[in-house]
Every structure is written in structure tokens, then in C-alpha cells.
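We emphasize that the prediction below concerns an isolated chain of 285 residues; any contacts that depend on oligomerization or on bound cofactors are therefore not represented. The input was used exactly as deposited, without trimming of termini.
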Amino acid sequence: MAQDATTNAAARIDAGASALYRRVSERAASFDVAVSPEELAELAVRGDMGAGELAALEAVFTYLADKHHEQVISTLLRLSRLPLKAPKTFGNFDFDRIRGKDAAALRSLPSLSNLHARKNIAFIGPGGIGKTHLAQAYGRECCLNCHKTYYLKANELRDKLDKAVKSGNPARTVSSLVRPACLIVDEVGRCTFDKPCTDLFFDVIDRRYEKDCPNTMILTSNTPVNNWDEFFTGDETLLCALDRVFDRATVFMMKGASFRGAELETFSVESSPMAAKLATMTQER
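Result of the prediction step, given as a C-alpha cell string:
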């Protein structure tokens, strides 16, 4: 029985060491350093490392992995063009103001299920009800989960595509808009795309549709989707092809009172005749 107990204790020690080697290996892999658990075990043997040294090794790799993760997120947020000052997040969106039978679908957005299901998202409704806030919050959440995000307004997209057309080599611009896992186009309907820009926009949509990895396109607009053909120029075939945006999509038709002005303070004051007279006498002196 004593021998069995010793064998079991040794097995537990071996299992614990193996788990530690795996953890360190996974931490190293998170910042692109390939070192297998077996290599770490051999290193421990050659260096005559005890439990204390192995724990210190794990602590160092954990620190480095966390530091690398923070740097990756910081870079993704900076390149995303999302506002970094007073950022819009799911945490500071007032979900308590959302009502209706489908409110739960809006509250489930932080799970990023659309991203992983490769489904687009559209927020449609009047101004001031949180469309841009939700779009930016989704993009920020993508960055925090290490997914590349790119945010721009529709007029900025139009100008970007127009510049690409005039350059005579639009492929690079199209690729840059296909690459992000999350592409956000805010305020669709604030400008009109001419035919060359519409052609390029469809190319972006088409190539994103074919991506076989987590990706989503998020669009916001004050205008119902069935009127979007007013903002894009092209023949009927091309405009119908734009429907591919909504082939796999979640569309939130939003309505209600505007959030804007919620922190507005208004004060009513007046000047009395006596106060005005005293002020004049003071100036004369």
C-alpha cells in the first residue's frame, strides 16, 4: 500500500508538471514563440529546475503574454479609427431604455455571435437612438477579442473609393476594406455613390461575403433598406447584387425617443432693473 501511495503521489506530481509545461507553452504561443511542453521539460531537466524555478518561469511567461495581449489590443484600437476618447461601449449603453419583444437580441450583441456566424448587422432608425453607439461598441468589443476592426462614415468610404478609382489602381483599397474582421460603415444615406464607387463597394461586399473566417459588416442608416438604391448608382443587376449585404444579416429596426440631450441642463435667469442701474453707476465711477 505504501508503494501504491508513493506511485500515486509521483503520478500527481508528473501530472502537475505536465499541466504547467502546457500552460507555459500556450502562453509562449500567444506571442508567436513556439516552444513545446516537451522542450520545456527537457530545459527543466538540463537546468535542474525545481518547483520554485518552474513557477517563476510560468510567472514570467504569463506576464509577457499579458503584456503582448495588451499591446495587440492597443494597436487594434488605434488602427480601427474608433474614437479612443470617451469610447462608446456596451457597458455605457443604456440597455434599460430598450423595449420590445426583440430587445433580447440587442442585448446579446456583446457575444459577437454575428461575427463568428459571418452575418452582417444593420441598425436602421431615426437619429439619436444609439445606432452609432452600438456599431462602435461592437467594433470595440471585436478589438478587445483581437479581431481587426475598421470604422468609417459613408461619406469617408465614398471619398476613399473615389480616390482609389482616380488612382487607377483600386485593388489595394478594396483589399484594405476586405481584410478587417469587422467593417463598420456609419450613416449610409448621407451621400450618393457614383457608378465607379458603387462598383468598388460591391466588390468589397462580394469579397467579404466569400471570406471563410469570422467577419461581419455593420451598417447604420436613418433610411429604410428598401430605399438604399437612391444612394448607389448602377444598373439593376448591380443594385440587386448589393442585396448580398443582407443575405446573411441581422437587421435592427429601431424607433423611439432620441438619447441626445439627456444630460442637457437649462437655466432661466433674468436681470432686474435695480441690478442694471447699480452696474451702470459702478462703471461711471
